[in-house]
Amino acid sequence: MKDFIIPTDDRDLGTPARDGAPVTLSIDGVEVTVPGGTSVMRAAALAGLTIPKLCATDNVEAFGSCRLCVVEIEGRRGTPASCTTPVAPGMVVQTQNDKLRKLRRGVMELYISDHPLDCLTCSANGDCELQDMAGAVGLRDVRYSTGANHYSAAGNGMLTPRDARATRTAPAGDLGNPNYIPKDESNPYFTYDPAKCIVCSRCVRACEEVQGTFALTIEGRGFDSRVSFGAKTDDALASDCVSCGACVQACPTATLQEKSVVELGTPTRSVITTCAYCGVGCSFKAELNGDQLVRMVPWKHGKANRGHSCVKGRFAYGYASHKDRILNPMIRDSIDQPWREVSWDEALGFAASRMRGLQEKYGRKSIGVITSSRCTNEETYLVQKLARAVFGNNNTDTCARVCHSPTGYGLGQTFGTSAGTQDFDSVEQSDVIMVIGANPHAGHPVFASRMKKRLRAGAKLIVIDPRRTETVEGPHYRAAHHLPLRPGTNVAVVTAMAHVIVTEGLMNESFIRERCDWDEFQHYAEFVGQPKNSPEATEMLTGVPAADLRAAARLYATGGNGAIYYGLGVTEHSQGSTTVMGIANLAMLTGNIGRQGVGVNPLRGQNNVQGACDMGSFPHELPGYRHVKGAEVRAVFESLWGVELDPEPGLRIPNMLDAAVSGNFKGLYCQGEDILQSDPDTKHVAAGLAAMECVIVHDLFLNETANYAHVFLPGSTFLEKDGTFTNAERRINRVRRVMAPRNGYEDWEITQLLARAMGANWGYTHPAQIMDEIAATTPSFAGVDYAMLEEKGSVQWPCNEKSPEGTPLMHVDGFVRGKGRFIVTEYVATDERSGPRYPLLLTTGRILSQYNVGAQTRRTANVVWHDQDVLEVHPHDAEQRGINEGDWVKLASRSGETTLRATITDKVSPGVVYTTFHHPTTQANVITTDFSDWATNCPEYKVTAVQVSPSNGPSEWQEDYAAQAALARRILPAAE
Amino acid sequence: MSPDKLVRMANQIATFFRSQPGTDQADRVAAHLRDFWDPSMRAALAAHLAKGGEGLDDLAREAAQKV
């Protein structure tokens, strides 16, 4: 297969890279120098010499079982396996001679004797390493009889129908093989054919070493041995398998095979691009036939994922061709009318005249935009530019408002910049990993796999989370401390940890004196040292046993390299920004900043949260986190854009909705977001949208927000456009157009068309030009352009004259703001409190197989794992209410009520219930309130006082909503 | 925009800055309002203050007067 984009060496070098001191050896007369610890097999591959192999692959450690890679080494006895033999100085290796050829043929003959020879009709035809190796070793005959496992279970003595030799007559008296095992097709994305297994264990090792799930094993002996998904009764779907695809990728035959390849054939071309799901930002090879996407394979050179993937990025791309996609623009005068399909010109003209009309009638600031963290940097940059330069106001906000805006404020105040401090590779050097308010297992699975690998190697884990999530405990690791705090008490817990570190003298004073503001530290130390902040004093309100908290704090402070990873369980609170500051304080206190293995790392929920923030999506900041009040910064853009910019901050999303309800905000262009489903207090969001006179939704599907829209502009998927995403480690990765946009335009083109319809003179012809403009105006991106990204693959900002190669680690020699700033973090209880009417606390989150509002993943086979949102209830609370497993329950708060099914589990503590927000039929956000973070208005999703009671079915609101949605989604056929 | 919500938000901001060391808390609250609140929100807060500022705590009130 040819890679048309980056001519990077994609060969499988057989064994993983090593980084020892250089060693020089001779292989087949070729002198080669490689890092110490490298295998002979890899050294040969690096020298351009290929040694046959089956059980070796460079994604997992060498195993030495197939014996195909044997070599001869001068001065050593026998024929060692080159995959398990490390290089040595002066070693002389021979990979080809008569003896080795004979040995390899013998090995291959045995393998083939137990493998069906249906190569021409096999789904791996052309992409089968067994086939390749049979050719490489010159196998010309098989003297052994066919393995019994290929016989049909029908018991008629016939071979498996797919076996080319099935036409032969069965031996006399052969009654067939009752042990024959048919293909397992239970998983929606891949098949498992035991008959084709060569027991190389690559899948088992990939599941263990790369993914860390340990779902696979080898069962049986001799000819009976095969891969198994656990117990004999388990099929792939029922097993612990999380469908990450690592086993399928590792399989050298058709034993584990993508169903898409079975159906569509072997792909013939590929394009490197970046996943559009979570903030890990995995690199993928999109493999195609023509413009038919056949499969997505994680790219081994991707620096965020290092060749790994999760079920979403690997398999859940079917939404791109789902029948629900809207491909034509649509308009309507009012939201009670059906949609009318119209031309792009008519839709854009309608939208432009409505928006301009609103400005004339209600004022320049009566309209605004919402940019998307799912869209590219270039698209986001254009949408905020549309607001600032074309609308003439700063009413631009992004969905990061409702997730990581407190990160921007908190890290900006303490460190001086709004970003994670490390790259993902850093976790490999962590000794203590503290995960706060995040469940990487579900939300950031590829990072979780890398973290778990480090944990299995001995690093210690601290988890601070109200739930006992999947991250707390897994195969071969368990958190040293899980602090199951009461929702809403993050600040008290983090401050109590600081109390322990300060009062027990565990802080890194030399780091603080050298790198931080000493006066601020003195204030802070005096504050945290107060008895009210001790674990014993806070235990009653946080629910965290003081002894456990003390032990966790001591471990973080003294356990070596301490790294903090946190998520929305930190930010989505009324004190979200304060907790972020508290986390930064902990890192500064202990000197855990500025080197590998440490740091403060926000795990971004969506693929381009970091980029959307970088691009100036917030109403108070121009690109590069520079406040709009700065005349010098405004001047940079004013001279380039030829307009005068508003020096005042604009409205944030919640403010826009409040202003709409008040009648002052009338028009919205919403790109790639579904605020009706994702934002809190659904009834309030609906009221705000309904009060607007022009809502333009630019999306793939008629999402929930579109029920209140007047213009629908069909969007393009990440497979259909060029651009860049910036992941949680500040890595700018290319998104490449894999196929033509089915809707006719890439999303940046649609924003440009709207801007032009409103009078702008934009003339971009490629997103590369937009990136050039970003680089010309934004110091941290000054060195970034597409040519550089093609050459390097990716780069982490800041990338400029000072750091031309980018910046993997932040704050190495000093903080961006100069001295690190300790900030006092007083705990303030949220006003959202449980009481007699609403005695439980609801917290929300996500699940592995679904993503955000589910617009994408609900339109894939991922629904097999999660077809509805369910409410987790503790057995004690369930018993008190007479709720049984699977019962319909009513979930009610002061904002609204919905119904969903309950599951009884002690993952949640008594008094706490939990659900996800992936399904619009549930609308978990009809329950959440309009309380928000004090600094940023990030909603307090994670704490809502609720009551749960048995129910018979959908709530009145759900029925009304479903009826309204059905009416709102009517589409009239296009006029002839 | 609902004065109740603005009052609540302003009080939240004041609560944070009240806990900070120094003597310029009102200035810092005011600066935060200027940096992050749209002028229409500040105007609505000022209008509420002009009517007596019901619900505003002392620090939020002092800051609102400085915006």
From TrEMBL, chain A:
Ranges where the 4Fe-4S His(Cys)3-ligated-type domain occurs: 99-138
What keywords are annotated for this sequence in UniProt?
A: 2Fe-2S, 4Fe-4S, Iron, Iron-sulfur, Metal-binding, Oxidoreductase, Repeat
**Residue span, 4Fe-4S ferredoxin-type domain:** 188-219, 232-261
A Pfam family that the UniProt record links to this protein:
Molydop_binding
Q: What start and end residues bound the annotated signal peptide?
A: none
What positions does the domain 2Fe-2S ferredoxin-type occupy? 21-99
| Cellular component terms per the entry's GO annotation | membrane; oxidoreductase complex
Domain named 4Fe-4S Mo/W bis-MGD-type: residues: 268-324
Q: Which family does it belong to?
A: In the C-terminal section; belongs to the prokaryotic molybdopterin-containing oxidoreductase family. Belongs to the complex I 75 kDa subunit family.
Q: What is this protein called?
A: Formate dehydrogenase subunit alpha
Q: Which organism is it from?
A: Szabonella alba
Encoding gene, per UniProt annotation: fdhF
TrEMBL record, chain B:
> Which InterPro entries does the annotation name?
Formate_DH_dsu
Organism domain of life: Bacteria
One Pfam family of this protein, by short name? FdsD
Spell out the protein name for this chain: Formate dehydrogenase subunit delta
Native source species:
Szabonella alba
